[in-house]
From TrEMBL:
<dbReference type="InterPro" id="IPR013057">
    <property type="entry name" value="AA_transpt_TM"/>
</dbReference>
<keyword id="KW-0812">Transmembrane</keyword>
<keyword id="KW-0472">Membrane</keyword>
<keyword id="KW-1133">Transmembrane helix</keyword>
<protein>
    <recommendedName>
        <fullName>Amino acid transporter transmembrane domain-containing protein</fullName>
    </recommendedName>
</protein>
<feature type="transmembrane region" description="Helical">
    <location>
        <begin position="116"/>
        <end position="135"/>
    </location>
</feature>
<feature type="domain" description="Amino acid transporter transmembrane">
    <location>
        <begin position="2"/>
        <end position="138"/>
    </location>
</feature>
<dbReference type="Pfam" id="PF01490">
    <property type="entry name" value="Aa_trans"/>
</dbReference>
<feature type="transmembrane region" description="Helical">
    <location>
        <begin position="74"/>
        <end position="96"/>
    </location>
</feature>
<keyword id="KW-0813">Transport</keyword>
<feature type="transmembrane region" description="Helical">
    <location>
        <begin position="51"/>
        <end position="67"/>
    </location>
</feature>
<keyword id="KW-0029">Amino-acid transport</keyword>
């Protein structure tokens, strides 16, 4: 019983930390995409990061109410599929539309955005595989 309680605590803590990391990553990236975004509610003004935290939290909350966790695997697969569509789209635009790949330059020109790009890929491929093991253990 003690072992089960420890494992349950560790798994729940891991899921909480993954959700928190996803929320932070999502809000930082939305803030970079829409730097001027803010919400004004009367005298209350929320800047971009605060408003994106609230909006993203409200959008993700229904997924926590699922009784069948196998549905989350479809959500994860959708994230991976959309990531692959974006990569293929960028390659096609660069290869066929004359926008990129034809100019000479450095591949790693802008290293300060590399952590954000790596974080986006890790969320799709690294955070979601935990869910099926939790489902199977329940």
């Amino acid at each position: 019983m003690k072992g089960r309680m420890i494992v349950m605590f560790m798994m729940n803590a891991e899921m909480y930390l993954i959700a928190t990391g996803f929320l932070i990553l999502e809000c930082d990236n939305l803030q970079k995409l829409f730097p001027e975004f803010m919400i004004k509610l009367g005298a209350l003004t929320l800047d971009g990061k605060q408003s994106f935290v609230i909006i993203t939290g409200l959008l993700l909350s229904p997924s926590m109410l699922l009784t069948d966790l196998s549905m989350l695997s479809y959500i994860s697969a959708t994230g991976v599929f959309s990531c692959l569509v974006i990569v293929v789209s960028i390659f096609c635009v660069g290869a066929f539309d004359g926008v990129g790949f034809h100019a000479k330059g450095s591949v790693l020109l802008n290293l300060d955005t590399l952590p954000t790009a790596v974080g986006l890929y890790i969320v799709s491929f690294g955070g979601h595989p935990v869910i099926p093991s939790i489902y199977m253990s329940m």
